[in-house]
């Protein structure tokens, strides 16, 4: 909104030599600061409201030892994703170009998956007889599948007329791999479903999912900038062409969105760090996961995001391996066996003797290293 307001006085501002508001880097930084301040200022009030509504977490796991580890989290308010979503909307609406198609679709994704997560959280905590269950598996799957399919179609129709865009791009490889329409949509659909669930699975310790998502959001803000922006004012060279990536016009505006996400998460960590005053719940984890998947799809960095979000991939695959191995051994030997003490992976290390704070900080460090490796591959390409 403020961008469009300033644009009304464009000629007057340019006559004064003020061009900065047109740059996505400048507006991205303002969006980050705005979303951080909104979270910091209104976070405590929203937490008090959640407490008044008795929206409190009730840890109930299949592992007795894990329930013992998590007993101190009982009655901590959840659905804190509301704080993150409001802050992202505030930063984005104020500083992004609202006529940008990528911005509009990013906001749609946050609303769709935020509502899905919110309903799931609400049913877990408020509906009698459904504690820890929330939406039934097929109910949740239907809305996740529908949302993922919409996102996949969004991305394809936005990119179909851009040269080299509807292709699969790999780290270290200088050319894209052709994908037919049906395969592009299927891969994108599976991808969004996986990223939304991966962040959701990681949200199990104070600050863990938030800190790892902040690293990914900062990386995607950079990748969106690289996808569409020139190397400098007056330059004819685009960063994407320099780094042998597809040039995606207008994708740079998503830098403002992801910068706003980064600021909102930093503000949320103020209340979510150990001991947490609030949890994000599915209300925050599902839309955040879907949004980072969308950013990677738009910039054609799906495979690179698997490296950047290495922690999320570890968590997701630990659950898949644990469930698959348990079912296989139960079928073959009559009794299910486990690879890990507990899945997702962060609970395994917790039960192995790591303190919660150690798990969280060490996973953050892994996430930062993964992001650094991913950025390094851009230059190596």
TrEMBL record:
Its EC number is 2.7.8.13. PROSITE patterns: MRAY_1, MRAY_2. The chain crosses the membrane at residues 24-43, 78-96, 102-120, 141-157, 177-195, 207-228, 248-271, 303-328, 359-378. The keyword Transmembrane helix applies. It holds the Pfam family Glycos_transf_4. It catalyses: UDP-N-acetyl-alpha-D-muramoyl-L-alanyl-gamma-D-glutamyl-meso-2,6-diaminopimeloyl-D-alanyl-D-alanine + di-trans,octa-cis-undecaprenyl phosphate = di-trans,octa-cis-undecaprenyl diphospho-N-acetyl-alpha-D-muramoyl-L-alanyl-D-glutamyl-meso-2,6-diaminopimeloyl-D-alanyl-D-alanine + UMP. It is an enzyme of class 2 (transferase). InterPro entries: Glycosyl_transferase_4, PNAcMuramoyl-5peptid_Trfase, PNAcMuramoyl-5peptid_Trfase_CS. CDD domains: GT_MraY. GO terms for cellular component: plasma membrane. It is a multi-pass membrane protein. Belongs to the glycosyltransferase 4 family. MraY subfamily. This is Phospho-N-acetylmuramoyl-pentapeptide-transferase. It comes from Sedimentisphaera salicampi. The gene is mraY.
């Amino acid at each position: 909104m403020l961008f469009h307001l300033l644009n009304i006085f464009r000629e007057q501002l340019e006559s004064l030599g003020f061009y900065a508001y047109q740059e996505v880097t400048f507006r991205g930084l303002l969006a980050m600061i705005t979303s951080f301040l909104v979270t910091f200022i209104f976070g405590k009030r929203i937490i008090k409201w959640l407490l008044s509504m008795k929206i409190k977490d009730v840890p109930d796991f299949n592992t007795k030892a894990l329930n013992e580890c998590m007993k101190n989290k009982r009655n901590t308010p959840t659905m804190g994703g509301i704080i993150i979503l409001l802050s992202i909307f505030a930063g984005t609406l104020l500083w992004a170009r609202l006529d940008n198609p990528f911005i509009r679709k990013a906001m749609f994704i946050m609303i769709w998956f935020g509502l899905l997560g919110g309903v799931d959280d609400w049913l877990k905590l408020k509906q009698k007889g459904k504690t820890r269950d929330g939406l039934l598996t097929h109910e949740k799957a239907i809305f996740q599948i529908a949302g993922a399919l919409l996102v996949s179609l969004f991305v394809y129709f936005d990119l179909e007329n851009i040269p080299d865009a509807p292709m699969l791009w790999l780290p270290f490889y200088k050319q894209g791999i052709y994908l037919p329409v049906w395969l592009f949509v299927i891969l994108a659909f599976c991808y969004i479903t996986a990223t939304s669930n991966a962040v959701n699975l990681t949200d199990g310790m104070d600050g863990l999912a938030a800190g790892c998502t902040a690293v990914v959001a900062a990386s995607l803000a950079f990748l969106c900038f690289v996808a569409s922006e020139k190397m400098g004012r007056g330059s004819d060279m685009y960063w994407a062409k320099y780094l042998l990536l597809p040039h995606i016009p207008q994708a740079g505006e998503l830098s403002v969105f992801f910068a706003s996400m980064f600021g909102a998460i930093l503000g949320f960590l103020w209340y979510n760090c150990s001991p947490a005053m609030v949890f994000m719940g599915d209300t925050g984890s599902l839309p955040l996961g879907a949004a980072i998947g969308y950013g990677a799809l738009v910039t054609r960095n799906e495979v690179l995001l698997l490296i950047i979000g290495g922690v999320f991939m570890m968590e997701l695959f630990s659950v898949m391996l644990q469930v698959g191995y348990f079912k296989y051994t139960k079928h073959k030997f009559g009794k299910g066996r486990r690879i890990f003490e507990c899945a997702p992976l962060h609970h395994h290390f917790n039960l192995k003797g790591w303190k919660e704070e150690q798990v969280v900080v060490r996973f953050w460090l892994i996430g930062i290293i993964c992001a650094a490796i991913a950025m390094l591959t851009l230059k190596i390409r």
